[in-house]
Amino acid sequence: MEFVGRVLRVARALAAALWQSLMAVGAVQLAGESARADARLLQAPAPGHPERLRPDVPLTALERAVLEDIGRLD
Question: Phi then psi for 61, rounded to 5 degrees?
């Protein structure tokens, strides 16, 4: 009976370690999803970025074609 008790204790310890490992893997997998959900969509480059948008300059034909392609030009 003592042997069965030891086997059960070892099995419980292994099951607990496995459970904690699976929880850690799940947390790592979901961390990217929750970070992505909090990210805001950018409409323009950040202030001070060298590629600033200029509303006073009209779009080129290529830029208009690209925007039409992705559905952002009405």
Answer: -60, -40
The rounded distance, in Å, linking the Cα atoms of 5 and 11 is: 10
Q: Is the pTM higher than 0.85?
A: no
- pLDDT for 67 beyond 70: yes
Cα dihedral 8/13/19/23 (nearest 10): 170
Q: What is the pLDDT of residue 52?
A: 66
The answer to whether 54 and 46 are in contact (CB under 8 A) is: no
Which residue range is the domain that position 21 belongs to? 1-36
Q: What is the mean pLDDT of the chain?
A: 83
In contact, 60 and 67? CB cutoff 8 Å: no
* Residue type (1 letter), 42: L
Q: How many domains does the chain have?
A: 1
